[in-house]
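Section 5: illustrative case.
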C-alpha cells in the first residue's frame, strides 16, 4: 500500500498544480453523478433532478470563487454530462418533456454575470464590442417572440443564443490570467474525450436501457427502436460528433502524451457516429494545422497520424456489418444527388429567399431549436443550417448583421493567433474555424455555439496577455525602476511566494 501511495504521490508531484486540481474536480463530478444516480434508482427522480441542479450551482459558486478556470472546466463537465443524467432520471421514472436537468448548464452560466457586470476592464477591451454587436440581434429576436406571443419559447431559444456570448466575455475579462487555463485543459480534454468516446462505442454495441427509452420517447413513434445512433453522454449524434471532432483538434495543443492514447478510440467513435459534417470539419482542421503549424504542433500532427493507423487497425477488426454500413455512409459523399439529408439542406437553402420574403422581420428566438421544441406545432424545430437560421430568427437585416459579426470575430481569432505567435492560440483558432465551418450543416447555438466562442475567446485572450506583457516590458525599458521601487517589487514577490 505504501509503495502504491508513494507511486501515486510521485505521479501527482510531476503534474502542474492546476492539473491536480482538475483531476480532483473530475472526482467531484463523478461523486455528483453517483449520488444523483443512486437517488434516481430509488425512484425519487422528483428529488434527484433538482438536487443535481442545486449541487451544480453550489459547486459552480465554490469553483468560481477559487478560480475562473476551475469554474470553466466544471461548467464544461456539466454541459457534456447533464443530458446523460437527464436520461438516468427519466429511466427510473416517467419521462418529462421539460426536464430541469437539461437547463443546469444554462443556469450555472448565470453565475458569471455578477463578475461581468461589475468588471472594470471588460468594457475597456475592444474585443468586447463584437460580442455586444452580436448580442443586439439576439435581444431583437427575443423581442419579436414577445410581440408574437411566443414568450416562453422565445426565452428558451434566446438562452441558447446568448449563453455562448457570456462565456466569451468571461474569458476575455480574465485574459490577464489566461496562462493558468492550459493545465486545466490538459486534464479535461483527454479525460472528457475518453469518457465520451468509450461510452459512445459501448452504446453502439450494447445500447443501455435508459438510452433506448430516451430515443423512443424523443421520436414518439409507434415503432420501438432496439438500435440507436451514437450520441454518447450528449443529446443528439450531431452534437456529440461535433464536440468529439473539436476535442480531437484541440488535442494538438492540449493533453500532451495522454491525448495520444485517447485519439484512436476517439477517431473510431467519431466515424461510427456517421456524422459526415463533423468528420469533414476534423479533416479541414487537420489540413489547416499541416499548412500553418510548426514545431510541437507538427509533432502532435504526427501523433494524430499514428493514431489514425491504429484506428484503421481497429476499424479492420470490426464486424463486417458495421464496416459495410460505414463504408456505404461515407461513400455517399460522392453521390449527394441521391442523399436525403443533402437534398433537404439544398431545398432549404433554395427556399430561403422566399422564406425571408415572407418573414422580413424574423420569427423570433422561439422559432428554431429548443425554443421551437418548447411549444408544439413549430415549423423550424431542427434547423440544419447555421447560415439560414439567423435570417429566420432575426429577419434579413439583423440576420445579415449577425452573420457578418460572426465572420468578423472568427477572422479576429485567426489574427490573434498570428500576432501572439502562440501555438496554443493557433490550435484554438483552427478549432474555431473548423467549428464555424459546421455552420453549413448545423446551428452554432447552445453547446455548439459554446465550442466556437470558447475557442475564439481563448485565442484572443492569449493575444491580450502577450500584448500586455510587451507593454509592461517596454515601459520598464523606458522608465527603469529606482532602487526603492525594485525593493518594493522584490518584497511583493516574496510575499506572493510565502
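Designed sequence:
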Amino acid at each position: 500500500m505504501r509503495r502504491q501511495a508513494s507511486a501515486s504521490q510521485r505521479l501527482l508531484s510531476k503534474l502542474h498544480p492546476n492539473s491536480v486540481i482538475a483531476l480532483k474536480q473530475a472526482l467531484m463530478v463523478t461523486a455528483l453523478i453517483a449520488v444523483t444516480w443512486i437517488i434516481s434508482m430509488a425512484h425519487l427522480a422528483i428529488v434527484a433532478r433538482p438536487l443535481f441542479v442545486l449541487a451544480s450551482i453550489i459547486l459552480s459558486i465554490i469553483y468560481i470563487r477559487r478560480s475562473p478556470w476551475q469554474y470553466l472546466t466544471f461548467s464544461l463537465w456539466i454541459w457534456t454530462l447533464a443530458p446523460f443524467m437527464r436520461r438516468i432520471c427519466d429511466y427510473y421514472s416517467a419521462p418529462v418533456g421539460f426536464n430541469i436537468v437539461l437547463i443546469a448548464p444554462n443556469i450555472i452560466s448565470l453565475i458569471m454575470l455578477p463578475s461581468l457586470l461589475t468588471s472594470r476592464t471588460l468594457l475597456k477591451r475592444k474585443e468586447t464590442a463584437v460580442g455586444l454587436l452580436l448580442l443586439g440581434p439576439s435581444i431583437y429576436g427575443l423581442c419579436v417572440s414577445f410581440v408574437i406571443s411566443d414568450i416562453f419559447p422565445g426565452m428558451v431559444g434566446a438562452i441558447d443564443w446568448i449563453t455562448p456570448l457570456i462565456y466569451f466575455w468571461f474569458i476575455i475579462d480574465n485574459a490577464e490570467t489566461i496562462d493558468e487555463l492550459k493545465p486545466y485543459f490538459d486534464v479535461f480534454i483527454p479525460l472528457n474525450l475518453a469518457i465520451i468516446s468509450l461510452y459512445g462505442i459501448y452504446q453502439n454495441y450494447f445500447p443501455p436501457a435508459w438510452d433506448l427509452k430516451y430515443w423512443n420517447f424523443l421520436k414518439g413513434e409507434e415503432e420501438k427502436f432496439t438500435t440507436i445512433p451514437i450520441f454518447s453522454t450528449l443529446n443528439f449524434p450531431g452534437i456529440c460528433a461535433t464536440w468529439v471532432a473539436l476535442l480531437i483538434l484541440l488535442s494538438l495543443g492540449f493533453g500532451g502524451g495522454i491525448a495520444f492514447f485517447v485519439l484512436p478510440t476517439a477517431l473510431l467513435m467519431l466515424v461510427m457516429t456517421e456524422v459526415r459534417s463533423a468528420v469533414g470539419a476534423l479533416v479541414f482542421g487537420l489540413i489547416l494545422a499541416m499548412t500553418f503549424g510548426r514545431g510541437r504542433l507538427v509533432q502532435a500532427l504526427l501523433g494524430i497520424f499514428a493514431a489514425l493507423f491504429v484506428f484503421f487497425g481497429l476499424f479492420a477488426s470490426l464486424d463486417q456489418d458495421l464496416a459495410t454500413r460505414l463504408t456505404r455512409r461515407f461513400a455517399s459523399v460522392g453521390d449527394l444527388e441521391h442523399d436525403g439529408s443533402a437534398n433537404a439542406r439544398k431545398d432549404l437553402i433554395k427556399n430561403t429567399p422566399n422564406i425571408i420574403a415572407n418573414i422580413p422581420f424574423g420569427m423570433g428566438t422561439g422559432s428554431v431549436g429548443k425554443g421551437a421544441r418548447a411549444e408544439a406545432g413549430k415549423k423550424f424545430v431542427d434547423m440544419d443550417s447555421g447560415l439560414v437560421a439567423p435570417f429566420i430568427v432575426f429577419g434579413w437585416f439583423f440576420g445579415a448583421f449577425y452573420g457578418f459579426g460572426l465572420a468578423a470575430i472568427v477572422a479576429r481569432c485567426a489574427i490573434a493567433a498570428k500576432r501572439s505567435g502562440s501555438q496554443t492560440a493557433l490550435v484554438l483558432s483552427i478549432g474555431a474555424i473548423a467549428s464555424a465551418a459546421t455552420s453549413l450543416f448545423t446551428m452554432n447555438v447552445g453547446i455548439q455555439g459554446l465550442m466556437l466562442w470558447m475557442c475564439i475567446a481563448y485565442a484572443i485572450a492569449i493575444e491580450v496577455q502577450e500584448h500586455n506583457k510587451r507593454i509592461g516590458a517596454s515601459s520598464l525599458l523606458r522608465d527603469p525602476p529606482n532602487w526603492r521601487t525594485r525593493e518594493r517589487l522584490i518584497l511583493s514577490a516574496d510575499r506572493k511566494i510565502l
